[in-house]
């Protein structure tokens, strides 16, 4: 078990995800875990939300805004190559307009102000919903070190709506970079919720992409650019959909394909030249 929560007076055991197993070997050893909510119950929720948040960035990362990120995607050689390969009477300029439309629909707009808002709201909710959220400090230290040394890709399974909320909440609590999170496009259609999620780091993917080569090109280049630039850790769920039985689902081929693309796109500095 990764945690034991109390929900409306009933005890609910939450199974450990693969991420929890990787970050916290030996889940039965309670000495390795710290209750994150213990300090929250003794302190001010507002002070926590507005605490100093200064995560150590990936050492190879360049300063990059969301606008810079989107510009790099649109100007990429890969996207231009795909546009030329697609057999269509459309001029190249029209493909650029289409790509921009896809990117505007998809892209995140991570803002610290909304992260703080979510931290405040989730603290209120989690303290009422759970008796405790136990985190493995050794695993968190390993993750924090990893985010400083290389781009990080988080691939937990998706057993409840709490998954992505809890991960971002824990990372904010311990000054670890907030990930950008792959979410389903229906959430973007919910005006208030969609905008809050977008500004909290969510980017939105269509559920049915099919053979749309331009969409695949924009999606893969967008994620690869985030990874290459070290903009933020990337989090997406290999099952694609939330499990409604608390059991793992069969991984989606599309998400595995994107994951492989991300791993293959990571570039390192030339040590010989730099030395």
Automatic annotation (TrEMBL):
One of its GO terms (biological process) is ether lipid biosynthetic process. One of its GO terms (cellular component) is peroxisomal membrane. GO terms for molecular function: glycerol-3-phosphate O-acyltransferase activity; glycerone-phosphate O-acyltransferase activity. Residues 152-269 form the Phospholipid/glycerol acyltransferase domain. Pfam families: Acyltransferase (PF01553). SUPFAM superfamilies: Glycerol-3-phosphate (1)-acyltransferase (SSF69593). This is Phospholipid/glycerol acyltransferase domain-containing protein.
């Amino acid at each position: 078990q990764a945690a034991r929560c109390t929900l409306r007076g009933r005890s609910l055991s939450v199974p450990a995800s693969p991420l929890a197993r990787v970050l916290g070997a030996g889940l039965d050893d309670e000495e390795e875990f710290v209750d994150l909510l213990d300090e929250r119950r003794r302190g001010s929720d507002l002070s926590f939300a507005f605490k100093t948040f200064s995560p150590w960035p990936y050492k190879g990362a360049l300063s990059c805004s969301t606008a810079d990120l989107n510009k790099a995607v649109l100007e990429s050689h890969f996207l231009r190559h795909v546009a030329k390969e697609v057999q269509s009477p459309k001029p190249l300029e029209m493909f650029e307009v289409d790509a921009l439309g896809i990117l505007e629909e998809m892209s995140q707009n991570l803002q610290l102000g909304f992260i703080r808002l979510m931290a405040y709201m989730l603290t209120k909710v989690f303290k009422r919903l759970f008796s405790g959220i136990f985190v493995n400090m050794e695993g968190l230290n390993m993750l924090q070190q990893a985010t400083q040394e290389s781009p990080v890709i988080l691939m937990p399974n998706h057993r409840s709506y709490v998954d992505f909320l809890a991960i971002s909440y824990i990372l904010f609590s311990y000054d670890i970079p907030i990930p950008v999170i792959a979410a389903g496009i229906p959430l973007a259609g919910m005006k208030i919720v969609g905008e809050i999620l977008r500004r909290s780091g969510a980017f939105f993917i269509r559920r049915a992409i099919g053979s749309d080569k331009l969409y695949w090109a924009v999606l893969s280049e967008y994620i690869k650019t985030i990874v290459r630039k070290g903009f933020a850790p990337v989090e997406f769920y290999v099952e694609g959909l939330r499990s409604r039985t608390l059991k793992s689902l069969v991984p989606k081929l599309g998400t595995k394909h994107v994951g492989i693309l991300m791993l293959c796109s990571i570039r390192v500095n030339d040590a010989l030249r730099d030395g």
